[in-house]
Design brief:
Length: 354
């Protein structure tokens, strides 16, 4: 079989975005071009803009729908709120925060990078020191943070960042990348005083990549989310995340995220033993089982593989992925007990967060 040909059946898409698109969303996009000056378009967008606010948990924020990628939304968030030369405190905790910092530097901002070991969350003690030193001069114009670092499966505590800013009555803007968190993890724009939050269409919203937001797919995607209930969506992600972590533990492998309170419910980065190349796991999963897993990125290349468990996904789909990972692990010579990860999943009814 040629490398690029899928085998029979569906591809099992378990990269941490893009994710499976619900069939109604795919159907909603299948439309003829429309008269964009007709009254139907403002009527639709008005509803959408109000609905989008619900998933950001804001009543005061102003939503923008931009046909771009997460990377484009980063740029938009920066260039519409700050000026070149402005000082930004930015947390470096993995590949996506690294790329955002790189963009901030290229755009000419004065980026004050706070780095932590990959696998750990943002260093808030360092932020506190910087805010204390800047308590009167206010040279820090913004704090930029990736809520959920997709490369390492680490979720940061945004409420704690807001508490620090408030403790020093610091006016810096709080800019949040919610690309792999919003609509899957607990996110509260108003309550946490987030000034700018951005997300991408291909993650928890379960839409096409690069925000082909056509408006109709967003309309249908939001309808499905509200039908399930946003809180239930978040709880479902917690169940799926917990099941994945239990499986990893049962396989005798380690989570790249080293702080329990930072475990991500949308992506788990799994550390493999040094005698196995994690890229081989990803390659073999795709070729042999039609299972798409995420590679380890940058510093984590060869050391971790990632299981995405977000978006339009249910328990049995995830169990299929976990079974697939077990078979792959066995094929590459890791001594896994087949069925152990899948069996561990049954404990999720008793365990909330592991
Ligand atoms: C946390 C995070 N931010 C930003 C991005 C970049 O998004 P895009 O690939 O749509 O440019 C990603 C992509 O995976 C991401 O996970």
């Amino acid at each position: 079989m040629a490398d690029y040909v899928y085998g029979p059946g569906r591809n099992h898409l378990f990269v941490p975005g893009p994710v499976n698109i619900p069939d109604p969303v795919i159907r909603a996009m299948n439309r003829q071009n429309e008269d964009y000056r007709s009254p139907a378009i403002p009527a639709l967008t008005k509803v959408l803009l109000e609905d989008v606010k619900k998933i950001f948990k804001t009543t005061t924020g102003t939503p923008f729908l931009i046909p771009t990628t997460g990377t484009g939304a980063w740029e938009s968030a920066l260039t519409n709120t700050l000026s070149p030369g402005d000082r930004i405190v930015s947390f470096l905790i993995g590949q996506f925060s690294l790329l955002w910092i790189d963009q901030q530097q290229r755009l000419g901002f004065d980026v004050d990078v706070v780095e932590s070991d990959w696998g750990r969350g943002a260093d808030l003690a360092a932020l506190e020191r910087k805010l204390r030193q800047d308590a009167t001069r206010h040279t820090i114009k913004a704090v930029a943070i990736v809520h959920n670092e997709t490369a390492t499966g680490v979720t940061n505590d945004l409420a704690a960042v807001r508490r620090l800013l408030d403790a020093y009555a610091h006016p810096a803007l709080l800019l949040v990348d919610g690309v792999s968190s919003i609509c899957a993890l607990d996110f509260r724009m108003d309550e946490w005083g987030v000034d700018v939050a951005l997300t991408g269409s291909q993650k928890a919203l379960s839409m096409p990549t690069g925000m082909g937001i056509l408006l109709y797919d967003l309309h249908t995607a939001l309808d499905l989310i509200f039908e399930e209930g946003l809180d239930n969506v978040i709880k479902r992600h917690n169940r799926l995340g917990t099941a994945t972590r239990l499986a990893v533990e049962a396989w005798g492998l380690k989570n790249c995220c080293r702080k329990v309170e930072c475990f991500s419910d949308t992506v788990t980065a799994v550390v493999v033993p040094p005698y196995i190349d994690s890229a081989e796991i990803v390659k073999h999963a795709w070729k042999r089982y039609n299972l798409s897993l995420g590679l380890g990125l940058n510093k984590d290349a060869g050391k971790v593989f990632r299981i995405g468990h977000l978006g339009n996904l249910n328990e049995l789909q995830l169990l299929g992925c976990l079974s697939g990972v077990e078979m792959v692990l066995k094929d590459v010579g890791y001594p896994v007990k087949l069925g152990s990860g899948v069996a561990a999943r049954r404990r999720t009814s008793r365990i909330r967060r592991l």
